[in-house]
Amino acid sequence: MTSPKRFGELPASAKQQPTPFELHVEEQKLQDLKTLLRLSPVAKQIYENLQDDGSHGKFGVSRKWVVDAKKYWEEEFDWRKEEAHINSFPAFTTTIKDEDGSDYTIHFTALFSRNPSAIPIAFFHGWPGSFLEFLPLMTLLREKYTPDTLPYHIIVPSLPGFTLSSHPPLRKDWKVADTARIMHKLLLSLGLTSYLVQGGDIGSLVSRVIAATYAECKGMHLNFMFISGIWDKSTPDDELTAQEKAGLERLDDFSTTGNAYAKMHGTRPSTIGLVLASSPVAHLAWIGEKFLAWSDPATAPSLHTIVADITLYWLTECFPTSIYTYREMKELLYVDKPMGYSYFPHELAPVPRAWAEKTGIMVFFRAHEKGGHFAALERTEVLWEDVEEFVRIAWK
């Protein structure tokens, strides 16, 4: 069913009619959150949590940041305003039937064009992100175009296990390939016989599996390349730029001191899931640290943006179901299709161009002087310019 909102008219070729969706959290749930925030203690001062460079220190997020962010969350943050902003975009839910007969409810927000030649692009978020990562980009496009002039269909799903989509099944394990299959089926259900994909973090893994597996996908643009098998220590140092050498130092630092969270997600998901589900302040510290440590300080998302993301995680109770990808090794899949790569220097694992171009047919590359892991939030216009240039090259 077409949404009455601007850009909400489904392609005429859509094979099934998704249901228009608006988010509305029950007031009691919001009041419960406020109560839990008020009653949740912050750990006492210790040497480690007093190390503070303004947001976090060498031992993790600082106590001061958590105290200040908790105060903002309690006293200033207005979920209803955030909800109204979310609901200003066309959004839908639809049922995707998997190959074993299971049904999954998938949420997505979108900007659909009336142009019969519009190019479909699916944007896939990562962890600890959500579809909220791409709302600034969608804002940019709806301000620039009308439904008649928009040259693209922009589809931004919530991945299974995240926020507003169904969680993975309770009786079997779930892999990136499973998420990729459901996302592909979603795009086909919209009548899209060919499309492009874009992603960062986990979204880059989903994009790569889709591009390597399904003929309907004609190419991928990524801003994250951190997967097993990509390391190429044989590349001579003189083939790496000064920026890339600095990036590899950042990667080494992440591998040494920054990836304990990932090991916890991958080896003890039950434990960390139960811990995080017990307290909104636990969410604040665990997820907030990632936004702080993985962003470029010059382009970092605002406290409001961070709190909005964490609030959505808390209200949808999705943290325990959002970390399944950490249990599997992300083996390299070569993509025999056009690939674009945007390099941001404060990415937690900035992979050099020489390494990345061995994983696909690289037709677009651009290195930027600023920006980090959350490129769609940190450098919205720059990322979109890269994607648009990639599309001009890749879409034939």
From TrEMBL:
Question: Which keywords does the record carry?
Answer: Hydrolase
Q: Which InterPro entries match?
A: AB_hydrolase_fold (IPR029058), Epox_hydrolase-like (IPR000639), Epoxide_hydro_N (IPR010497), Epoxide_hydrolase (IPR016292)
Which BP terms does GO give this entry? epoxide metabolic process
Q: Which residues form a coiled coil?
A: none
Query: What Pfam family does this protein match (any one)?
Result: EHN
Listed GO MF terms: epoxide hydrolase activity
What are the catalytic residues?
D201 (nucleophile), Y326 (proton donor), H373 (proton acceptor)
Taking every annotated instance into account, which residue ranges of this chain make up the domain Epoxide hydrolase N-terminal? 19-134
Family per record = Belongs to the peptidase S33 family.
The name this protein goes by in its record: Alpha/Beta hydrolase protein
What organism does the record attribute this protein to? Ampelomyces quisqualis
